[in-house]
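Problem: given the chain below (203 residues), write out its structure.
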Amino acid sequence: MYIPQPFRADEGVAWSLIGELPVGQLITATVDGPVATVIPWVADVEHGRLVGHMARPNLQWQTPWMGEALVLFAGPHGYVSPSWYATKSEHGRVVPTWDYVVAQIRGELVVHDDEAWVRDVVVRLTDRHEQGRSDPWSVDDAPPEYIGGQLRGIVGVEVRVDRIETSVKMSQNKAPADVAGVIAGFQADGNEPVAEWVRRAGA
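Solution.
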């Protein structure tokens, strides 16, 4: 991935970003071309891996792939208008751009067709997204035979991380007055998530 130096983030930022984002696209190369599936992931930082699951009828896990898998996580993003820059009125040498956060993970893909392994992933995913709710749902709330049937309908997937690349392009290369204009512009557009990332990137 092309990442200009001002936007390059370290591995710690990458794992933090993955922890914030709910889903990422699993992409594999096959003889018939690339195949992709949107998957909710659990970031297992301690073991340097991502774990998730996909539907058993999904052909991606059944189709031989070549080389490493790629998982793409896309965070908040938005169009930056030149009219937001303070320097527009000074010299007019401004153009539109796009601010975004993205992480690309490369690594060995392993499929787990094992009910106990898959159940553990489902429990971890559920607990992650149910935490903080006033009445959180648990896998144990459903009848065991029902859960067993659901588990047999999916397979586990694991990506053993070999390389992480993260680009946080949030106007860090702009003058402070222009950055302030970008934050105000995103807020006016109702895009507070990107406004907050611009603040974080410039902190």
